[in-house]
Amino acid sequence: MSAVDGNPSFRASAISLGLRANWRQFALLVLINAFVGGMVGIERTVVPLIGSEEFGIASTTLVVSFIVSFGVVKAFANLVSGHLADVWGRKRVLILGWLVGLPVPFMIMWAPSWGWIVAANALLGVNQGLAWSMTVIMKVDLVGPKSRGLAVGLNESAGYLAVGVTAFLTGYLAAEYGLRPVPIYLGVGYAIAGALLSILLVRDTRDHVRLEIGDSPREAAAIGFWEVFALTSFRDRNLFAASQAGLVNNLNDGMSWGIFPLFFAAFGLGVERIGILKAVYPATWGILQIATGPLSDRWGRKGLIVAGMWVQAAGLFLTAATREFEFWLIGSLLLGLGTAMVYPSLIAAVSDASHPSWRARSLSVYRFWRDLGYAIGALSAGVIADIFGLSWAIGTIAALTFLSGLIAALLMRGSQPESRRTNDK
Protein backbone atom coordinates (compact mmCIF):
# COMPACT_ATOMS: atom_id res chain seq x y z
CA MET A 1 0.00 0.00 0.00
CA SER A 2 1.39 3.40 -0.93
CA ALA A 3 1.62 6.31 1.45
CA VAL A 4 -1.14 7.98 -0.49
CA ASP A 5 -3.46 4.98 -0.17
CA GLY A 6 -2.73 4.56 3.49
CA ASN A 7 -3.12 8.17 4.55
CA PRO A 8 -6.31 9.88 3.35
CA SER A 9 -5.28 13.29 4.65
CA PHE A 10 -2.01 13.06 2.72
CA ARG A 11 -3.91 12.04 -0.39
CA ALA A 12 -6.31 14.97 -0.06
CA SER A 13 -3.42 17.45 0.25
CA ALA A 14 -1.20 15.90 -2.44
CA ILE A 15 -3.90 15.12 -5.04
CA SER A 16 -6.39 17.60 -6.43
CA LEU A 17 -8.82 17.65 -9.33
CA GLY A 18 -8.90 20.18 -12.15
CA LEU A 19 -7.05 21.09 -15.31
CA ARG A 20 -4.94 23.82 -13.73
CA ALA A 21 -3.70 21.58 -10.93
CA ASN A 22 -2.82 18.73 -13.32
CA TRP A 23 -1.85 20.56 -16.50
CA ARG A 24 1.56 18.93 -16.90
CA GLN A 25 0.23 15.38 -16.88
CA PHE A 26 -2.78 16.48 -18.93
CA ALA A 27 -0.55 18.05 -21.61
CA LEU A 28 1.63 14.94 -21.68
CA LEU A 29 -1.43 12.76 -22.25
CA VAL A 30 -2.59 15.10 -25.04
CA LEU A 31 0.78 14.62 -26.77
CA ILE A 32 0.69 10.85 -26.29
CA ASN A 33 -2.80 10.67 -27.76
CA ALA A 34 -1.56 12.58 -30.80
CA PHE A 35 0.87 9.71 -31.34
CA VAL A 36 -1.97 7.22 -30.84
CA GLY A 37 -3.99 9.01 -33.51
CA GLY A 38 -1.01 9.16 -35.83
CA MET A 39 -0.83 5.37 -35.78
CA VAL A 40 -4.27 5.27 -37.43
CA GLY A 41 -3.43 8.16 -39.73
CA ILE A 42 -0.68 6.21 -41.50
CA GLU A 43 -3.43 3.94 -42.87
CA ARG A 44 -6.17 6.37 -43.87
CA THR A 45 -4.88 7.14 -47.35
CA VAL A 46 -2.45 4.42 -48.41
CA VAL A 47 -3.61 1.06 -47.04
CA PRO A 48 -6.80 0.69 -49.14
CA LEU A 49 -4.69 1.61 -52.18
CA ILE A 50 -2.03 -0.95 -51.22
CA GLY A 51 -4.77 -3.59 -51.31
CA SER A 52 -6.16 -2.56 -54.69
CA GLU A 53 -2.94 -1.55 -56.46
CA GLU A 54 -0.09 -3.61 -54.97
CA PHE A 55 -1.98 -6.80 -54.17
CA GLY A 56 -4.51 -6.48 -57.01
CA ILE A 57 -7.58 -7.10 -54.85
CA ALA A 58 -10.71 -6.41 -56.91
CA SER A 59 -13.34 -7.08 -54.21
CA THR A 60 -14.18 -4.02 -52.15
CA THR A 61 -15.30 -6.27 -49.29
CA LEU A 62 -11.88 -7.93 -49.22
CA VAL A 63 -10.04 -4.61 -49.43
CA VAL A 64 -11.86 -3.29 -46.37
CA SER A 65 -11.22 -6.51 -44.41
CA PHE A 66 -8.31 -4.81 -42.64
CA ILE A 67 -10.79 -2.33 -41.12
CA VAL A 68 -13.03 -5.20 -40.01
CA SER A 69 -10.16 -6.85 -38.13
CA PHE A 70 -9.20 -3.49 -36.64
CA GLY A 71 -12.74 -2.65 -35.55
CA VAL A 72 -13.59 -6.01 -33.97
CA VAL A 73 -10.32 -6.27 -32.05
CA LYS A 74 -10.42 -2.63 -30.93
CA ALA A 75 -14.00 -3.03 -29.73
CA PHE A 76 -13.11 -5.97 -27.50
CA ALA A 77 -9.90 -4.28 -26.32
CA ASN A 78 -12.07 -1.31 -25.30
CA LEU A 79 -14.43 -3.63 -23.48
CA VAL A 80 -11.71 -5.04 -21.20
CA SER A 81 -9.68 -1.85 -20.90
CA GLY A 82 -11.81 -0.29 -18.16
CA HIS A 83 -11.69 -3.41 -16.00
CA LEU A 84 -7.94 -3.75 -16.53
CA ALA A 85 -7.49 -0.07 -15.68
CA ASP A 86 -9.29 -0.55 -12.36
CA VAL A 87 -7.34 -3.73 -11.53
CA TRP A 88 -3.86 -3.04 -12.93
CA GLY A 89 -3.81 0.74 -13.08
CA ARG A 90 -4.15 3.14 -15.99
CA LYS A 91 -0.44 3.50 -16.71
CA ARG A 92 0.22 -0.23 -17.06
CA VAL A 93 -2.62 -0.64 -19.55
CA LEU A 94 -1.36 2.38 -21.52
CA ILE A 95 2.13 0.87 -21.74
CA LEU A 96 0.72 -2.50 -22.76
CA GLY A 97 -1.18 -0.80 -25.59
CA TRP A 98 2.00 0.75 -26.92
CA LEU A 99 4.02 -2.47 -26.68
CA VAL A 100 1.40 -4.28 -28.76
CA GLY A 101 1.42 -1.44 -31.29
CA LEU A 102 5.19 -1.34 -31.87
CA PRO A 103 5.27 -4.06 -34.61
CA VAL A 104 2.40 -2.54 -36.63
CA PRO A 105 4.28 -0.13 -38.96
CA PHE A 106 6.98 -2.73 -39.67
CA MET A 107 4.36 -5.33 -40.61
CA ILE A 108 2.68 -2.90 -43.00
CA MET A 109 5.98 -1.89 -44.62
CA TRP A 110 7.19 -5.44 -45.14
CA ALA A 111 3.90 -7.31 -45.64
CA PRO A 112 4.35 -9.99 -48.35
CA SER A 113 0.60 -10.63 -48.54
CA TRP A 114 -2.71 -9.01 -47.61
CA GLY A 115 -3.04 -11.33 -44.63
CA TRP A 116 -0.12 -9.52 -42.99
CA ILE A 117 -1.98 -6.22 -43.35
CA VAL A 118 -5.07 -7.73 -41.72
CA ALA A 119 -2.93 -9.12 -38.87
CA ALA A 120 -1.19 -5.77 -38.39
CA ASN A 121 -4.57 -4.10 -38.03
CA ALA A 122 -5.61 -6.60 -35.39
CA LEU A 123 -2.57 -5.49 -33.36
CA LEU A 124 -3.41 -1.86 -34.14
CA GLY A 125 -6.89 -2.49 -32.75
CA VAL A 126 -5.38 -3.62 -29.43
CA ASN A 127 -3.07 -0.61 -29.43
CA GLN A 128 -5.93 1.82 -30.03
CA GLY A 129 -8.36 0.08 -27.69
CA LEU A 130 -5.96 0.16 -24.76
CA ALA A 131 -3.87 3.30 -25.37
CA TRP A 132 -6.62 5.65 -26.57
CA SER A 133 -9.02 4.43 -23.88
CA MET A 134 -6.44 5.17 -21.19
CA THR A 135 -5.72 8.69 -22.42
CA VAL A 136 -9.47 9.45 -22.32
CA ILE A 137 -10.04 7.86 -18.92
CA MET A 138 -6.95 9.46 -17.35
CA LYS A 139 -7.89 12.95 -18.54
CA VAL A 140 -11.42 12.57 -17.18
CA ASP A 141 -9.87 11.37 -13.90
CA LEU A 142 -7.60 14.41 -13.71
CA VAL A 143 -10.11 17.21 -14.37
CA GLY A 144 -13.04 15.99 -12.28
CA PRO A 145 -16.74 16.55 -13.08
CA LYS A 146 -16.68 20.23 -14.02
CA SER A 147 -14.62 20.09 -17.22
CA ARG A 148 -15.25 16.69 -18.79
CA GLY A 149 -16.28 18.14 -22.14
CA LEU A 150 -13.12 20.24 -22.27
CA ALA A 151 -10.94 17.28 -21.32
CA VAL A 152 -12.48 14.97 -23.90
CA GLY A 153 -12.46 17.70 -26.54
CA LEU A 154 -8.74 18.32 -26.13
CA ASN A 155 -7.97 14.61 -26.06
CA GLU A 156 -9.97 13.79 -29.19
CA SER A 157 -8.76 16.94 -30.90
CA ALA A 158 -5.14 15.91 -30.51
CA GLY A 159 -5.83 12.37 -31.66
CA TYR A 160 -7.87 13.18 -34.74
CA LEU A 161 -5.84 16.21 -35.77
CA ALA A 162 -2.89 13.80 -35.81
CA VAL A 163 -4.96 11.39 -37.93
CA GLY A 164 -5.66 14.18 -40.43
CA VAL A 165 -2.12 15.55 -40.59
CA THR A 166 -0.69 12.06 -40.98
CA ALA A 167 -3.22 11.15 -43.68
CA PHE A 168 -2.12 14.23 -45.63
CA LEU A 169 1.58 13.54 -45.14
CA THR A 170 1.28 9.89 -46.14
CA GLY A 171 -0.64 10.91 -49.27
CA TYR A 172 2.10 13.40 -50.17
CA LEU A 173 4.88 10.93 -49.47
CA ALA A 174 3.09 8.18 -51.40
CA ALA A 175 2.81 10.47 -54.43
CA GLU A 176 6.54 11.18 -54.24
CA TYR A 177 7.99 7.83 -53.15
CA GLY A 178 5.30 5.18 -53.61
CA LEU A 179 2.83 3.54 -51.25
CA ARG A 180 5.53 1.70 -49.28
CA PRO A 181 7.74 1.95 -47.25
CA VAL A 182 8.44 5.70 -46.94
CA PRO A 183 4.94 6.89 -45.84
CA ILE A 184 4.90 4.30 -43.05
CA TYR A 185 8.14 5.58 -41.47
CA LEU A 186 5.97 8.10 -39.63
CA GLY A 187 4.34 5.23 -37.75
CA VAL A 188 7.69 3.96 -36.53
CA GLY A 189 8.42 7.32 -34.95
CA TYR A 190 4.96 7.56 -33.39
CA ALA A 191 5.16 4.10 -31.83
CA ILE A 192 8.61 4.59 -30.31
CA ALA A 193 7.84 8.08 -28.97
CA GLY A 194 4.49 7.04 -27.50
CA ALA A 195 5.93 3.99 -25.76
CA LEU A 196 8.89 5.86 -24.25
CA LEU A 197 6.82 8.78 -22.95
CA SER A 198 4.27 6.40 -21.41
CA ILE A 199 6.95 4.36 -19.66
CA LEU A 200 9.11 7.23 -18.43
CA LEU A 201 6.80 10.16 -17.67
CA VAL A 202 3.13 9.17 -17.22
CA ARG A 203 1.76 8.83 -13.68
CA ASP A 204 -1.29 6.75 -12.76
CA THR A 205 -4.55 8.58 -11.93
CA ARG A 206 -6.40 6.14 -9.67
CA ASP A 207 -5.82 8.38 -6.66
CA HIS A 208 -7.72 11.13 -8.44
CA VAL A 209 -10.66 8.73 -8.83
CA ARG A 210 -10.56 7.93 -5.10
CA LEU A 211 -10.60 11.63 -4.31
CA GLU A 212 -13.58 12.22 -6.63
CA ILE A 213 -15.48 9.32 -5.08
CA GLY A 214 -14.93 10.86 -1.66
CA ASP A 215 -16.27 14.21 -2.89
CA SER A 216 -19.15 12.79 -4.91
CA PRO A 217 -22.72 13.53 -3.74
CA ARG A 218 -23.80 10.21 -5.25
CA GLU A 219 -23.25 7.01 -3.33
CA ALA A 220 -21.42 4.28 -5.20
CA ALA A 221 -23.53 1.24 -5.96
CA ALA A 222 -21.79 -2.12 -5.70
CA ILE A 223 -22.40 -3.32 -9.24
CA GLY A 224 -20.52 -5.80 -11.38
CA PHE A 225 -19.25 -5.65 -14.92
CA TRP A 226 -22.30 -7.23 -16.56
CA GLU A 227 -24.65 -4.84 -14.81
CA VAL A 228 -22.54 -1.95 -16.09
CA PHE A 229 -22.66 -3.58 -19.55
CA ALA A 230 -26.46 -3.81 -19.42
CA LEU A 231 -26.88 -0.24 -18.14
CA THR A 232 -24.64 1.21 -20.81
CA SER A 233 -25.98 -0.94 -23.64
CA PHE A 234 -29.75 -0.73 -23.17
CA ARG A 235 -31.11 -0.26 -19.64
CA ASP A 236 -30.32 3.44 -19.21
CA ARG A 237 -31.94 5.49 -21.99
CA ASN A 238 -29.20 8.15 -22.07
CA LEU A 239 -26.45 5.55 -22.18
CA PHE A 240 -28.30 3.53 -24.85
CA ALA A 241 -28.83 6.64 -26.98
CA ALA A 242 -25.15 7.50 -26.67
CA SER A 243 -24.02 3.95 -27.46
CA GLN A 244 -26.10 3.62 -30.63
CA ALA A 245 -25.00 7.07 -31.83
CA GLY A 246 -21.38 6.19 -31.16
CA LEU A 247 -21.74 2.93 -33.09
CA VAL A 248 -23.26 4.68 -36.12
CA ASN A 249 -20.71 7.50 -35.94
CA ASN A 250 -17.87 5.02 -36.29
CA LEU A 251 -19.91 2.98 -38.77
CA ASN A 252 -19.77 5.92 -41.17
CA ASP A 253 -16.12 6.54 -40.27
CA GLY A 254 -15.25 2.91 -41.07
CA MET A 255 -17.08 3.23 -44.37
CA SER A 256 -15.25 6.44 -45.28
CA TRP A 257 -11.89 4.92 -44.30
CA GLY A 258 -12.25 2.02 -46.70
CA ILE A 259 -14.63 3.29 -49.39
CA PHE A 260 -13.66 6.93 -49.93
CA PRO A 261 -10.15 6.29 -51.39
CA LEU A 262 -11.61 3.72 -53.82
CA PHE A 263 -14.56 6.01 -54.67
CA PHE A 264 -12.33 9.01 -55.38
CA ALA A 265 -9.79 6.92 -57.33
CA ALA A 266 -12.59 5.48 -59.48
CA PHE A 267 -13.20 9.00 -60.85
CA GLY A 268 -9.52 9.53 -61.66
CA LEU A 269 -8.38 11.44 -58.57
CA GLY A 270 -4.66 11.07 -57.83
CA VAL A 271 -3.29 9.80 -54.54
CA GLU A 272 -2.09 13.25 -53.40
CA ARG A 273 -5.56 14.82 -53.84
CA ILE A 274 -7.14 11.76 -52.21
CA GLY A 275 -4.79 12.42 -49.31
CA ILE A 276 -6.09 15.99 -49.07
CA LEU A 277 -9.71 14.81 -48.87
CA LYS A 278 -8.82 12.09 -46.39
CA ALA A 279 -6.98 14.66 -44.25
CA VAL A 280 -9.65 17.39 -44.26
CA TYR A 281 -12.26 15.23 -42.53
CA PRO A 282 -10.26 14.15 -39.45
CA ALA A 283 -8.37 17.47 -39.28
CA THR A 284 -11.65 19.41 -39.15
CA TRP A 285 -12.94 16.89 -36.64
CA GLY A 286 -9.79 17.29 -34.56
CA ILE A 287 -9.48 21.07 -34.57
CA LEU A 288 -13.13 21.86 -33.87
CA GLN A 289 -13.33 19.55 -30.85
CA ILE A 290 -11.29 22.16 -28.98
CA ALA A 291 -14.47 24.27 -29.17
CA THR A 292 -17.24 21.66 -29.18
CA GLY A 293 -16.01 19.86 -26.07
CA PRO A 294 -16.24 22.95 -23.84
CA LEU A 295 -19.51 23.96 -25.54
CA SER A 296 -21.04 20.68 -24.41
CA ASP A 297 -20.12 21.66 -20.83
CA ARG A 298 -22.06 24.92 -21.27
CA TRP A 299 -24.97 23.92 -23.51
CA GLY A 300 -25.45 20.28 -22.59
CA ARG A 301 -24.80 17.20 -24.71
CA LYS A 302 -28.04 16.33 -26.53
CA GLY A 303 -28.31 19.22 -28.98
CA LEU A 304 -24.74 18.82 -30.22
CA ILE A 305 -25.16 15.05 -30.59
CA VAL A 306 -28.40 15.20 -32.60
CA ALA A 307 -27.35 18.09 -34.82
CA GLY A 308 -23.92 16.55 -35.34
CA MET A 309 -25.34 13.27 -36.62
CA TRP A 310 -27.53 15.13 -39.10
CA VAL A 311 -24.60 17.28 -40.32
CA GLN A 312 -22.61 14.08 -40.89
CA ALA A 313 -25.49 12.64 -42.91
CA ALA A 314 -25.60 15.78 -45.08
CA GLY A 315 -21.88 15.51 -45.81
CA LEU A 316 -22.19 11.86 -46.80
CA PHE A 317 -25.20 12.48 -49.06
CA LEU A 318 -23.32 15.32 -50.78
CA THR A 319 -20.28 13.11 -51.36
CA ALA A 320 -22.34 10.26 -52.80
CA ALA A 321 -24.35 12.52 -55.11
CA THR A 322 -21.51 14.54 -56.68
CA ARG A 323 -18.52 13.89 -58.91
CA GLU A 324 -16.30 16.95 -58.43
CA PHE A 325 -13.40 17.56 -56.04
CA GLU A 326 -14.87 20.83 -54.72
CA PHE A 327 -18.13 19.18 -53.63
CA TRP A 328 -16.24 16.25 -52.11
CA LEU A 329 -14.17 18.78 -50.16
CA ILE A 330 -17.34 20.42 -48.79
CA GLY A 331 -18.69 16.95 -47.94
CA SER A 332 -15.50 16.14 -46.03
CA LEU A 333 -15.73 19.44 -44.14
CA LEU A 334 -19.35 18.72 -43.17
CA LEU A 335 -18.43 15.21 -42.06
CA GLY A 336 -15.63 16.62 -39.91
CA LEU A 337 -17.86 19.32 -38.43
CA GLY A 338 -20.63 16.87 -37.54
CA THR A 339 -18.22 14.41 -35.98
CA ALA A 340 -16.58 17.18 -33.95
CA MET A 341 -20.01 18.04 -32.52
CA VAL A 342 -20.78 14.43 -31.68
CA TYR A 343 -17.56 12.81 -30.50
CA PRO A 344 -16.62 14.64 -27.28
CA SER A 345 -20.28 15.18 -26.39
CA LEU A 346 -20.97 11.44 -26.43
CA ILE A 347 -18.02 10.55 -24.20
CA ALA A 348 -18.91 13.37 -21.80
CA ALA A 349 -22.57 12.25 -21.77
CA VAL A 350 -21.54 8.71 -20.80
CA SER A 351 -19.27 10.12 -18.07
CA ASP A 352 -22.15 12.27 -16.76
CA ALA A 353 -24.43 9.24 -16.41
CA SER A 354 -21.82 7.03 -14.67
CA HIS A 355 -20.63 7.00 -11.08
CA PRO A 356 -16.86 7.54 -10.70
CA SER A 357 -16.52 4.04 -9.22
CA TRP A 358 -17.73 2.40 -12.45
CA ARG A 359 -17.15 5.19 -14.97
CA ALA A 360 -14.09 3.53 -16.52
CA ARG A 361 -16.10 0.35 -17.17
CA SER A 362 -19.06 2.28 -18.56
CA LEU A 363 -16.79 4.22 -20.91
CA SER A 364 -15.23 0.94 -21.99
CA VAL A 365 -18.63 -0.55 -22.82
CA TYR A 366 -19.61 2.58 -24.75
CA ARG A 367 -16.33 2.45 -26.66
CA PHE A 368 -16.94 -1.26 -27.35
CA TRP A 369 -20.19 -0.46 -29.15
CA ARG A 370 -18.78 2.66 -30.77
CA ASP A 371 -15.72 0.97 -32.27
CA LEU A 372 -17.64 -2.13 -33.29
CA GLY A 373 -19.08 0.36 -35.77
CA TYR A 374 -15.77 0.33 -37.66
CA ALA A 375 -16.20 -3.35 -38.51
CA ILE A 376 -19.94 -3.12 -39.21
CA GLY A 377 -19.51 -0.03 -41.38
CA ALA A 378 -16.59 -1.36 -43.41
CA LEU A 379 -18.14 -4.80 -43.94
CA SER A 380 -21.65 -3.60 -44.79
CA ALA A 381 -20.33 -0.83 -47.06
CA GLY A 382 -18.05 -3.30 -48.81
CA VAL A 383 -20.90 -5.71 -49.50
CA ILE A 384 -23.22 -2.91 -50.70
CA ALA A 385 -20.44 -1.53 -52.92
CA ASP A 386 -19.77 -4.93 -54.51
CA ILE A 387 -23.48 -5.41 -55.27
CA PHE A 388 -24.78 -1.90 -56.04
CA GLY A 389 -21.72 0.34 -56.38
CA LEU A 390 -19.68 2.73 -54.23
CA SER A 391 -22.18 5.60 -54.37
CA TRP A 392 -24.95 3.38 -52.99
CA ALA A 393 -22.69 2.29 -50.11
CA ILE A 394 -22.05 5.90 -49.11
CA GLY A 395 -25.72 6.90 -49.48
CA THR A 396 -26.97 3.97 -47.42
CA ILE A 397 -24.63 4.80 -44.54
CA ALA A 398 -25.76 8.45 -44.78
CA ALA A 399 -29.38 7.35 -44.27
CA LEU A 400 -28.43 5.26 -41.23
CA THR A 401 -26.56 8.23 -39.77
CA PHE A 402 -29.65 10.46 -40.10
CA LEU A 403 -31.79 7.75 -38.45
CA SER A 404 -29.35 7.48 -35.53
CA GLY A 405 -29.65 11.22 -34.91
CA LEU A 406 -33.43 10.85 -34.85
CA ILE A 407 -33.18 8.05 -32.26
CA ALA A 408 -30.97 10.26 -30.08
CA ALA A 409 -33.45 13.13 -30.42
CA LEU A 410 -36.35 10.95 -29.28
CA LEU A 411 -34.67 9.00 -26.46
CA MET A 412 -31.92 11.11 -24.94
CA ARG A 413 -32.82 13.41 -22.08
CA GLY A 414 -31.51 16.97 -22.32
CA SER A 415 -28.39 16.11 -20.35
CA GLN A 416 -26.35 18.73 -18.54
CA PRO A 417 -22.86 18.27 -17.10
CA GLU A 418 -22.80 16.99 -13.55
CA SER A 419 -21.54 20.30 -12.23
CA ARG A 420 -24.78 21.95 -13.46
CA ARG A 421 -27.20 19.32 -12.13
CA THR A 422 -28.60 18.80 -8.70
CA ASN A 423 -29.61 15.19 -9.29
CA ASP A 424 -27.98 12.30 -11.10
CA LYS A 425 -31.08 11.31 -13.11
UniProtKB/TrEMBL annotation:
<feature type="transmembrane region" description="Helical">
    <location>
        <begin position="184"/>
        <end position="202"/>
    </location>
</feature>
<feature type="transmembrane region" description="Helical">
    <location>
        <begin position="158"/>
        <end position="178"/>
    </location>
</feature>
<dbReference type="GO" id="GO:0022857">
    <property type="term" value="F:transmembrane transporter activity"/>
</dbReference>
<dbReference type="InterPro" id="IPR036259">
    <property type="entry name" value="MFS_trans_sf"/>
</dbReference>
<feature type="domain" description="Major facilitator superfamily (MFS) profile">
    <location>
        <begin position="1"/>
        <end position="206"/>
    </location>
</feature>
<feature type="transmembrane region" description="Helical">
    <location>
        <begin position="93"/>
        <end position="110"/>
    </location>
</feature>
<protein>
    <submittedName>
        <fullName>MFS transporter</fullName>
    </submittedName>
</protein>
<dbReference type="InterPro" id="IPR020846">
    <property type="entry name" value="MFS_dom"/>
</dbReference>
<keyword id="KW-0812">Transmembrane</keyword>
<keyword id="KW-1003">Cell membrane</keyword>
<feature type="transmembrane region" description="Helical">
    <location>
        <begin position="394"/>
        <end position="412"/>
    </location>
</feature>
<dbReference type="InterPro" id="IPR050171">
    <property type="entry name" value="MFS_Transporters"/>
</dbReference>
<feature type="transmembrane region" description="Helical">
    <location>
        <begin position="303"/>
        <end position="321"/>
    </location>
</feature>
<dbReference type="InterPro" id="IPR011701">
    <property type="entry name" value="MFS"/>
</dbReference>
<feature type="transmembrane region" description="Helical">
    <location>
        <begin position="327"/>
        <end position="350"/>
    </location>
</feature>
<dbReference type="GO" id="GO:0005886">
    <property type="term" value="C:plasma membrane"/>
</dbReference>
<feature type="domain" description="Major facilitator superfamily (MFS) profile">
    <location>
        <begin position="238"/>
        <end position="425"/>
    </location>
</feature>
<keyword id="KW-1133">Transmembrane helix</keyword>
<dbReference type="Pfam" id="PF07690">
    <property type="entry name" value="MFS_1"/>
</dbReference>
<keyword id="KW-0813">Transport</keyword>
<feature type="transmembrane region" description="Helical">
    <location>
        <begin position="62"/>
        <end position="81"/>
    </location>
</feature>
<keyword id="KW-0472">Membrane</keyword>
<dbReference type="InterPro" id="IPR005829">
    <property type="entry name" value="Sugar_transporter_CS"/>
</dbReference>
<feature type="transmembrane region" description="Helical">
    <location>
        <begin position="21"/>
        <end position="42"/>
    </location>
</feature>
<feature type="transmembrane region" description="Helical">
    <location>
        <begin position="116"/>
        <end position="137"/>
    </location>
</feature>
<keyword id="KW-0614">Plasmid</keyword>
